[in-house]
Structure formats: structure tokens, C-alpha cells
Amino acid sequence: MSLGHSFRPWLASSLRCSLHPQICARSAPLRFMSTEGATEALGGMEVEALETSQDWHDFQIHRAQRSALVDVFSQYGSTHAPGSTFRARDTLRKPATHPTISALLAAGAHFGHATSRMNPNFMPYAYGTRAGITVIDLDQTLPLLRRAVSLVRSIAYAKGTIVFVGTRPDLRPVVQTAAERFGGYYVGDRWLPGTLTNKIQLFGADTVKEQKFTPDLVILLNPLENMHAIRECAIEHVPTIGIVDSNADPRIVMYPIPANDESTRTAELIAGVLSIAGKEGTTLRAAEDKKAEADAERAKQTRRPRY
After folding, report:
1. pLDDT tens-digit map of 238-280
2. What is the DSSP string of 225-291?
3. Contact at 8 Å (CB) between 244 and 253?
4. What's the pTM?
5. What tens digit of pLDDT does each residue of 79-93 get?
6. Are 226 and 281 in contact (CB under 8 A)?
């Protein structure tokens, strides 16, 4: 009778050790003559004192069965290594490519402000209240975040200019890292009023003509503190993406993402996901440009006359 075909692998291993203990038993170490020694050998399991040879024989069989189960099940266990284990700052250094509700929940994106401070226009994005705090509906947040991801990828693919704005001290490294990931721009200290609407007086007519000062997309991690930037973007018809909390009107930005705007981890997650999308867009454009250049060179070689 074949044990491998009649039983599951782990059960077959256990039965094999029961039927043939001389095969599974390891080399016998020092004999434990007390309960304390046997307890250490079994990893903390309580066993009786080994007084007779039969007790020692049963102990060996039990240890072999346990080792066999550990060996069989270890291949189905965790594959985490020191390089792949999650750390608290991984949302900034190694952001996820695709956003998930579990990641948003772990980052605390569902925590809103006090119920008394909730903006009436935020009602469609509120899941409910608990302990006087508005709970944001992440089932509404996720599709809006994915829509923003598609927008950033499209603009980066079209070689557009994207600016990240985060003017709190804890948001400065977030916007800097996000912008540097795909060659964008960032504002981490203060939005200078008139940057878009009064750029000739601020930077000079020649500089404005030579360089492009109007971005194609502005991403705001703390929009309420940057209403000047939102107004200027509205005047210049620049689309905006913003993290909108329960105390804000989602209509202040063109593409709202309802989430906790005071959580640094939430900002890291959202900025990281959007920056990865921007990197994907620039990579796709670079690959297509390289292919177009190769096709043009190949066509040029084909049209060249032969003598």
C-alpha cells in the first residue's frame, strides 16, 4: 500500500514515521532523565519524565513525527526575507504599484475629522461615524485613486509637466521623492502667490518665453493649506488632484481623493502610487520613441540607393 497515494503528504509522513521509527529517528542525544530536559527538547511542550527505555523510545517517535510535520509544512510558510520584509518607511522608498483597500486601511486613510466639522458636500464619501469621528468610505476612495493613477500615467506618457505640492514639514521629503522618481517637479516650502497668474512680473518676460511655467497637472497633498495654488490652477485651467478630508469640500479640486490629509503614511502611499504611474508613463513614452527612431533609421537604410 502506497502511503503517498492514499494520504495527504503531511499525513503520509507522519504515518511513515509511526510505522518505521528507525528511519525517522535522529541520532539519539543525551538521554533526558527529568521533565525539564524533555520540555526543552520539545520546544516548551510538557512531557512526563523519561524513566524507562519504552518512554525514551516513545519520545523519539514523537519527536520524529513533529520534525516531519515541520519539514513538510515549512515549504508552505512565509517567504519573507530581510530584503522583502515590510518596514514602516517602505511606503516612501518602495511604494506599491497598484493601490488596495488594505494598504489604505493600514495607512489610516479612513480616519476623518470630528463629525461636527464634516463638510456637507463630503457626505457621499463618508461611511459613517464612530466615537465622534467621521469614517471615510474607502470603497469610494479606491476607484477615485485609480482614476488619478490613470490620469498621471497619461499625462506623463504625453510628456506633460506634473507638480507635487506638499507644504508641511513632514510632506517635503514625500513630494521630493515622488517628483524625483519620474522627473517631475515639487513645491515643498511655500507656494508663491502669483506663480501662475503673475509669472511675467515674478520671473521676467524673457524667462517666461524661454521656459514653460504652466504645468499640465498639479497634485496637492494638503490642499486646504494651498488654496492660492488651487485658485491659480483654476484660473489657468490646470487640472488638480488633491487629498480631500472630511472637513473640506471635494469640489475645490478637479480630481478629489477622499482620505486622511493629516496622515503622513497616507500621503506617502498616495504620492508613491501616483509617482509610480508617472514613471510608467515616461518609460512607455521612452520605449516608443526609441522604437520610432529605430524604425526611422531602418527605413532610411532601406531607401538608400545601392550601387
Report:
1. 999 999 999 999 999 999 999 999 999 999 999 999 999 999 9
2. GGHHHHHHHHHTT--EEEEE-TTS-GGGSSEEEES-TT-HHHHHHHHHHHHHHHHHHHHHHHHHHHH
3. yes
4. 0.69
5. 555 565 556 556 556
6. no
| Rounded distance between C-alpha atoms, residue 142 and residue 103, angstroms | 10
DSSP string, 137-166: -HHHHHHHHHHHHHHHHHHHHTT--EEEE-
Average pLDDT over every residue of 161-189: 93
219, 205 contact by CB (below 8 A): no
pLDDT at 158 over 70: yes
Measured from the Cβ of residue 22, the count of other Cβ atoms closer than 10 Å reads 9
Where do we find the cell 517637479? 185
What's the rounded mean pLDDT across residues 158-174? 94
Q: Give buried/exposed letters for 114-126 (b at 16+ CB in 10 A, else e).
A: ebeebbeebeebb
Return the C-alpha cell found at 101.
483597500
Calpha distance 182→156 (Å, rounded): 9
Buried b (16+ CB within 10 A) or exposed e, 271-294: bbbbbbbbbbbbeeeeeeeeeeee
Set out the domains of the chain in order of their start, with CATH numbers: 99-288 (3.40.50.10490)
